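DM from R.C. (forwarded with permission)

"hey, sorry to bug you on a friday — could you get me a structure for this? deadline for the figure draft is monday and I only need the backbone to look sensible"
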Amino acid sequence: MITFPAGLSALSDRYDIVLCDVWGVIHNGVQSFPQACDALVQWGEKVGPVVLISNAPRPASDVVAQLDSLGVSRAAWSGFVTSGDATRALLSARAPGKAWKIGPGRDAPLYAGLDLQDAACEDADFIACTGLFDDETETPEDYRDRLVVAAERGLTFICANPDRVVQRGDKLIFCAGALADLYESLGGEVIMAGKPFAPIYDLAIARAAELTGKPVDRTRVLCIGDGVITDVLGAENQNLACLFIAKGIHGEKAIGPDGLLNPEAVLALLAADKTGATHAVGDLVW
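My reply, with the result:
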């Protein structure tokens, strides 16, 4: 049965470790959310470690600068793993090789040190996707013709960011997961290592064990996130508790006319994707 706590502090006696999503929970790509960041700072000071678990397609070491620029205090987290970290293992297994690399130049650190040559879809051995080349103007449909060719050639599509959309400021933008969905619909094979899949959770649990210096009791781990088919489903698949942030990418869909969280709307959001959370709040607060 899902509960609706007033804030994170109400759960501090039930859990020791937090695995927290980033985009949509502590920032929106343009600015950080001070109350959410403060909640994580207080958890770290009073309860236990916070490991950020993000579907960013770049290694965590390359994303820290973005958090700094958005004003996310480093006191809000003590560990950080990304889909990029988990995806590098998939890429290295295919090196040396030729990859059709789909995504903006800022994601180049994903490939650092890997012997992977750039190739067109007609010549590549596989596809590596971090996102759209220009997520401000393009949609997945702009890639359909080339993906049809790749699917006919039987290329595997490695998706470095399973998110379908994220909120950037006040608009939603497409992510690599949306291209992966299109590729699957064309009959292509897709492999992912980020949320909701196991590899990124294995990394996060291992990082938490390093921080605590002891094996992790998974019943004392709380996942936090706003993505139903990534954060909530991933936690459920790993038998981990989840605090669903019902606003995030869902905006006002779970908020009633009184401005408060609508429990029935929350349950409907979760039921639509056949999953369930342990707890839910509108925004992350202490």
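R.C.: lifesaver. The longest helix spans residues 198-212.
me: no worries. The helical segments are 34-46, 60-69, 83-92, 144-152, 176-185, 198-212, 228-237, 263-272.
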